[in-house]
Amino acid sequence: MRPATQQSLIDTGRRLSSHLPGAWDRRARELAKIALNYRGARRLAARHVQFALVRHGSPLLVVPFGPGQIAVDPADEEVGRTVFITGGYEREHMAAAVRHLRAAGRPVDGKVFVDAGANIGTSTLDALLQFGFARAVSFEPDAANARLLRLSAQLNDLGPRIEVHTVALSDHDGTVGLRRSHSNSGDHRVVALDSNGHGNGHGPPPPGGETVECRRLDSYFGPGGSAPGDVGLVWVDTQGHEPHVLAGAPALLGAGVPFVVEYCPWVLLEGAAALEAQIADHFSLVVDLREGAELVPADVPRLRARYATRGYTDLLLVP
């Protein structure tokens, strides 16, 4: 079908579906995309069906991931499902970040990629396979996720280039609680513990949770560790613990290393203000990677309304 004809049908479908109730509107749009094969919608629909068929019969899946492969847990409803169906996970955000850094005279080629909250390694693998980083240092407190990351490193012959630490990153060296999601391996959450081993303001780790080791980034990058200047980008996705991660990284912040942090006000809650203050203190340029908009730090609090109740973005922070 010619692009102009397809676009005309899409515009007509949008006008018609806008008169339907919300749930039916979304269903009609999805069916129309499949009928028109809009952006490969038929292949994606087929992958949805394949995932539903294979996930209950296998404890582990190895699937294509960009130019490489990745090991996923078929019980994972978010990261595992998305990677199986699409072959990537927010790759476009990293592409945008690298593009902006190069435009700012900060190429990442040959640099170290630091992955805070690495999960099963989607960002780590993309950094090495797609975007020119020389090696990665990845931090993931969940042992099952870390095992999948190490397996994927071997599948792609990246073992010597990936250093995996099964610890949480925070603002101190010690322990924290880890609250687990049963359906989304990317939604495990770090909980600060008080002197009695209880989570401050959150209660103790729930059944299925545990106490895990935590370290500051400065324990690895700083005096006695790797040189902060070797780091091209720190990628932080820690489900609301981002302000604590930055608070534990003064050596990297002082060295002028760019960061990407997930910005999700409804997960950060009171931590949103702390993160915004850190951004104002240490960075001069902010890029909303979901929207592609360049901002100054003073603009960041205005994003709260946009992402207040749902959705999120990743923010590139440039010193």
Present the secondary structure layout.
Elements: H1 3-17, H2 22-36, H3 41-54, E1 61-65, E2 68-72, H4 79-86, H5 91-103, E3 112-116, H6 122-129, E4 135-139, H7 143-155, E5 162-165, E6 168-169, E7 174-179, E8 189-191, E9 210-215, E10 231-236, H8 242-247, H9 250-254, E11 259-263, H10 265-268, H11 271-282, E12 285-288, E13 293-295, H12 303-306, E14 313-318
Parallel strand pairs: 3-4, 3-10, 4-5, 6-9, 10-11
Antiparallel strand pairs: 1-2, 7-8, 7-9, 11-14, 12-13, 12-14
Helix pairs in contact: 1-2, 3-4
Explain this structure:
Helix content is 37%, strand content 20%. It is an alpha/beta fold and 319 residues long.
Radius of gyration over C-alpha positions, nearest whole angstrom? 21 Å
Element string (H = helix, E = strand): HHHEEHHEHEHEEEEEEHHEHHEEHE
Give a quick account of the main beta sheet: strands, pairing sense, barrel closure. 8 strands, mixed
Strand order of the largest sheet: 5-4-3-10-11-14-12-13
- Structural class per helix/strand content? alpha/beta
User: CATH homologous superfamily of the largest domain?
Assistant: Vaccinia Virus protein VP39
Mean pLDDT: 84
Level-1 CATH class name of the largest domain: Alpha Beta
Proportion of strand residues: 15-25%
- What is the number of helices? 12
